[in-house]
Give the backbone structure.
Amino acid sequence: MIYFAQQLANAVPLCALYAALAFGYAIAFGMTRRADIAYGAIFVFAGQLYLLFTATGWNALNLVFPAALAFGAFMALVYGIGAGVVVGRQVLRPLYRASPNAVIVASLAVLIILSETARLAMESRSLWLPPFLNRPVNLWDDGAFSVTLTVIQMVNAALMVAVVGLGHWVLTKSRAGLVWRAVSEDPFAAELCGTNAGLVFLLAYATAAAIASVCGVLATSYYGTMDFGIGILFGLKVVLIAAAGGYSVPLRSAAGAAVVGLAETLWSGYAPIVWRDLVVVSVLVAMLVASRRERVIP
């Protein structure tokens, strides 16, 4: 029982990460209505730039470690959001208007460009952060075994849950959320009512990129590194994970992603980890195929 409780605790940061990423992806999907693995690429891109600029702050600018981390995080957010704005404005929005299905192919091209840009900037090196905020916090102790999480796991999970909560409030309670829902459901009708659908598209994708960038910084802080070798796999997993909860409601998409994070953690605790990604992706694909409905996507 205590081992199971530890696995549930271990699932918290991963569930929060998947939920936040799925929430941001659903915001972007509301505009493109097409699978977009570039979103996962922005997540990894921001994480790698966080490593690069933190190393620059420490080695070249002689900053103390907290200041180097802050510098790296700030620059990663600037570049991650900037990449989202450029991709949304120059690639996805024009293609969506001309040929929506081309978005799928273009997102793969964006992933390759971002991965090669980061690789060249880092000179094909793997950078690592030293562990920090890794003090274990005792959540439950039965005398023989303790259920613990580290400080950084708890901080990351809290920040990611806050991102989802704030995003849900904006989408459901503010005028910005009302406009996003209008454009996602029918951009032409929204434009007839005076809404600038192109601007909403760009702002929505920039917001999604901001969420991906924040998650990239937080995940890299915990894991210590970020490898673009997982870019394609992670981009695919984000697409499938978000689909587990459905794309139409970002909060529901986040909840489905959290369930997948829990399943991954339990599999890692009780089954061979080498088969985890294969089994999870296969189950998600099977679920999507079984629930597929024949319909025209506008």
Notes: Residues 38 and 109 are 8 Å apart (CA to CA).
